[in-house]
Amino acid sequence: MTLTDLPASAADTDGGAVVRLLSYNIRSMRDDVGALARVIRACAPDVVCVQEAPRFFRWRSHAARLAGMSGLVHVTGGATANGQMILSSLRARVEWAEDVLLPHTPGLHRRGFATAVLRFGDRAGLAVVSCHLSLQKDERRRQADMLLDRLDALTARGELRGGPVGAVAAGDLNERPDGRSFRRLADRLQDGYAVRPWGGGHTSEPARPHQRIDAVLASSSVEVLGCGVPDGLAGVSRADLVAASDHLPVLAALRLPPSR
Length: 260
Prior knowledge:
Blueprint: E1 10-11, E2 17-25, H1 33-43, E3 47-51, H2 59-70, E4 73-77, E5 85-88, E6 92-101, E7 112-120, E8 124-132, H3 137-162, E9 166-172, H4 180-188, E10 190-191, H5 192-195, E11 214-218, E12 223-228, H6 238-244, E13 250-256
Parallel strand pairs: 2-3, 8-9
Antiparallel strand pairs: 1-2, 2-13, 3-5, 4-5, 6-7, 7-8, 9-11, 10-11, 12-13
Helix pairs in contact: 1-2, 1-6, 3-4
GO molecular function: endonuclease activity; hydrolase activity; metal ion binding
Cofactor: Mg(2+); Mn(2+)
Protein name: Endonuclease/exonuclease/phosphatase family protein
């Protein structure tokens, strides 16, 4: 798949939907915010799973600024999820949103999940978790299990409200695909880039990408149409990617099943 044929957002005739989801570690907006917003806008996402969103002084203003510059709205997260955040386009209807703080290991940074159930069109639903797993391998493995449990709970909530929903976890896993936690997640969910590679694979570091530690992972009910780093996508310049953050984003096009 080339950089010009990643499917655009659309409603399916059967009530399903094609959704573009972007995962992006933005390093607390400490870099070039203009470049960051240009990258996000060029990707034309319906959903953005953010990691390392601003979470200290005036974090709400920073979140609103990024959403406004990107043509999106804030759904949930930020300081209340310890840096994880979800943004969306006006195409998404928010059915549920919740920020989750994970158990704290003394001496380590406390992590969290930003979670939401979104509906597109009349019926197509998506449970979303934005995550940033620990740098410490044992804690990271426990967090991977908590992530799967949380995704199951969100999916069940969405089904109670409107029938079957797809599910996606997206974020900075702090681990390569051969790592134990990454493999644990990929055993239960589809690793988007492995299933349908599109664009680049490596997400760190932007100037010299050499490892894939950021991912979009989807449930079996979601069809992955393409997934990868949008390096070379129209409107996304290499200069902006390098200036925007210390991670490269991951963009996925997903076909959601129709709900009953």
